[in-house]
Amino acid sequence: MAELLVADGLNKAFGPTPALDGASISIDAGEIVAVMGPSGSGKSTLLHCLAGIVRPDSGQVRYEGREVTAMPDRERSALRRRQFGFVFQFGQLVPELTCLENVALPLRMERVRRRAAEQRAMEWLERLEVTDVAGKRPGEVSGGQGQRVAVARALVTNPRVIFADEPTGALDSLNGERVMRLLTQSARESHAAVVLVTHEARVASYSDREVVVRDGRVRDLTGARRG
Amino acid sequence: MVYTPWCTVLGMSIGQTFLGLLESSPRHGYDLKRAYDERFGRTRPLPYGQVYATLSRLLKSGLVEVDSVEPGEGPERKRYAITEAGVTDVDRWLSQAEKPEPYLQSVLYTKVVLALLTDRPAADLLDTQTAEHLRLMRELTRRKDGGDLAEQLICDHALFHLEADLRWLELTAARLDELAREVRSHG
User: Fold this and answer.
1) Which ipTM score applies to this complex?
2) Distance from the Cα of residue A215 to its chain's centroid
3) Could you say which of 1.20.210.10, 3.40.190.10, 2.60.40.740, 3.40.50.300 is the CATH number of the domain covering A3-220?
4) What is the pLDDT of residues A183-206, one digit of tens each?
């Protein structure tokens, strides 16, 4: 498989506290990689740098060979909208919109007509088994349903990479499992890579491989790649 | 999955534990038993018969040798030392991942302490074990995906146990420096 997303020697500090200290990682197209590590180890900062949300102090992030870290803000925003999808722990759906409108939103931002956007959004709600909440607002659905709506929204643009930061962190075991099964299944069917940040081994076990972030550095437990 | 009680698992590794203790310094049989009981057998001290049977097996296989013999009031006191082959055996045992099974923390704990005692990289040992646990968890999750409810529940049972082991591994990794100081201060 081809390298899709590569981080090389990333350093990032917030004030005097270093979050990343020479972190390197490489993700292949269609690969599901779990990024594990204790709280405060730098795993979310790594995800934010890989996704072009946060600029590292030094080091490079390359997506399909293009240097994300050197792109102007506008280009990076377009990359995030068109090529990347995001699932967070909570608070990511727009409360004023219905679940269907939430899923259609990324398509509407790309100027897809409302009807076509909502039709595609409905197809994704079906795949994520939440068509029954299409007309409801996020405040009216359960945590598990809300997360499945969020996964549908992350996948609706057919992104090449899904960034998921503790996607089951606020759910019980059963709902967490359902979200993980549907997320990884849909990503595999769409050939999307997934960068999955989690501190839970059971969540990580849905991935193809795991890396551990410790003290701002990425450690491949097999010892094959470290940095 | 068949669960092995911890004492059986530990029983299988008494020889290697002796070798590890002898690598840190040659000892008489009595001292070896005392060191073993103190570190690993607090609730289940080793019977003398097992100590000498194990030493005799290790002697026969060339993993230990008699370092010196001192005349005593009763029988002669033999001091045992590890051989090159014994060191290689400890090396192999410590670097190999245990087959992930519930209740094996005792073996893992023993390995960590011996790695620290013999100045081997204990953090690498924990990483190797973590990787092996995660590999098995991935395998069980795949199996669960294609299985019926009974299969899913059987896999879940194993997954939760493995997850508990992993939490122990993570906690031990976080306390490794503290443990190293404690282990080394007791010689």
Assistant:
1) 0.82
2) 22
3) 3.40.50.300
4) 999 999 999 999 999 999 999 999
